[in-house]
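Subject — a protein and its fold
Encoding — discrete vocabulary of local shapes:
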Amino acid sequence: MTSAYESDPIFDPVPRQLSNIVTRIRAGEVALPDFQRNFVWDAARTEELIKSIISKFPVGTLLLWKQGSEELFASRNFEGAPELAGKKPDELVLDGQQRLTALYQALTGTGDELYYLKVDEFVNFDEKTIREFHEVDFETAIISVPKASTETQRKKNEGILTLSHFPISDVSRFDDWLDDFADAAKEGDASIDAKALRSLYRQMRDKYVIPLRSYGLPTLTLPETTPIEAVCTIFETLNRTGKPLGPFELLTARYYPQGVNLREYWDEARSNYRALVDFKIDPYNVLQAVTLRAHGSAQRSDILKKLTADDIREHWNPVIKGIAGVIDMLQSDCGVVDAKWLPYGMVLFPMAAVWQEIMELEPLDRATATERIQRFFWNSVFTTNYDQGANSQAGADYSRLKNWAPKGEGGAPEAIEDLPLDAATFRSASVRRKALYAGLMCLLVKSRAEDFHTGQAMTPYRVGETPIDSHHIFPKAFLARSGAAESSELLLNRSLIDAETNRIIKDKAPSDYLQDMADAYGEDKLRSVLNSHAIKVGPESGISRDDYTAFLDERLDTVVQLVERATGRTLVEVEDEESTDQLA
């Protein structure tokens, strides 16, 4: 009877002899999937690995994936190994590339450095014994030198290397090297017993050189039937501490044999559309938008299972243009002056997926459709509809957007028709509510909020040129001194303020710094700037009287009007104090 606690044999590592792996890499039987990053180890890390191998220490488990008859992924040779030249490898290395490349290059002499064992360091000549690993000075016992590509480097290497430096790349010919070494030692010192010397160094060979051929690297091998979703998950898990390698990289390798080079597509897109770079668009999100257009889904499982090379050929360019177009619209019409103020990254992609259909409309119809897509953006932000399950939400929204946005047909997305939108949320929300917080800052810019210092309306260019960020209107230190009952971190207490103005504000009472600003900028300019930031002005206003609660209530009234104008909806009013305690 099999115990429920017995290990699954697929996860029992099987040791593979190092020399066998090197041979199979050279023959192209073991290779790398094309999505693997390049070899990045320096010589010092390779020396440490060699030290562990010859000391018979653990060096970690390898993970390989057995390949079937169908070529699922593009593959490539290890750096230093012969080109595959169309040969299909039997196995791909999912984890262990850096270690195997380091060992392959050291054992074949194909890297930028050559590695040596100084055999004298492993021998105790006085006692005629072989040192234990803890007695070996590995800093001198294992060294590397750059390959001599110039006469200067060759002479430098000659000054470093001695008769007792054994080249690791000659590991299979150690006995021949030892004969030459013993003969040379005898010629240099007639008193040396060459036979005894050979015997002593053969003991050293057995203890420290043989492992460079016989060391068993623990290896897990995934069967060829392993689903791509599982491979993707395993690979992402293994590489969380290194360069991220996810579905985009896997699919790049999968589609390459079918004539679709996703890496080239992506490089060209980033070159043609600066917005993709500025807003740090992830190429995986592009595939999500492509899958929305092709299959109505942004779910990872559908991207991995359903997306085809033909889907990418058909939808890649419309999606890239759509993402760039949506970003341009958000910057110019919705106040998203910088990537950090984009309330939700995922909300871009259902909009991008319908952008081509909007751009194909006649000018007047296009303007109406653009207004609809902007309403969708603002409602999604202020209902916080992408806080949870963003991939599922993108699919649900696209299913309605594709007809509603360009044509006004069918039902509108749920954020516009079905979800509540109330003033109490804005009155009590803190800056921890990222979407609301970013949305409010963007809404102020959309409403032509002015720079406190220059009095000019904020634009992406001006925000990029001038240090402008979100700062407190009622300073945190002032509220603490005055014993304010409400949090200083409410989003209604924030606005976009330049660094020089923020230095004027410091920790002062609002009435004091307003006077300083009036003296510096002028009364009329100050009044215009404050109004543009949805801040009520006048001697009886909350900010002029240093009344924080009154200020929050006054600002809420103006913010509600701005939100209603952007969303096309009427917000539920704050009816009592209890309602303001929700959703902080």
In short: The CA atoms of residues 290 and 315 lie 6 Å apart. The mean pLDDT is 89. The first strand starts at residue 14 and ends at 17.
